[in-house]
Amino acid sequence: MTIAEVSKKYDITPDTLRYYERIGLIPPVPRTKGGVRNYDETSCGWVELMKCMRSAGVQIEALIEYVALFRRGEDTAAQRKAILVEQRSQLEERMAEIQRSLDRLNSKIAGYDQCLRKKERELTDRLLREGGGQED
Fold first, then answer.
1. Residue 69: DSSP 8-state
2. In terms of Cα–Cα distance, which of 69, 63, 76 is closest to 23?
């Protein structure tokens, strides 16, 4: 696939794809004889993984280290796993923090709902009292 096709498929700009490759966030992409990037299934898998990891907030430095270790071979499997475990732990902490924030927001919204229901009841009661004795 061309860089334009990959860009469209993963909704990432061509500049971002080039940047990812330049900094080592994805391994070097195969090239045609003319030097044009030719993304294969493996390259696309790396792009998809990095997009997923970055959107989750995984640190670029950790991902670059992961890719560098991957390129060194199977002897680095334990180190790569350690990076992923650490990043998962950090992601779980952020998720817990987000959940606490969401719980707090839901509590605040529920408080406003109660307040608004009380105001509606008071307004309804007042309207019924004021209009209750009148004939049509």
1. H
2. 63
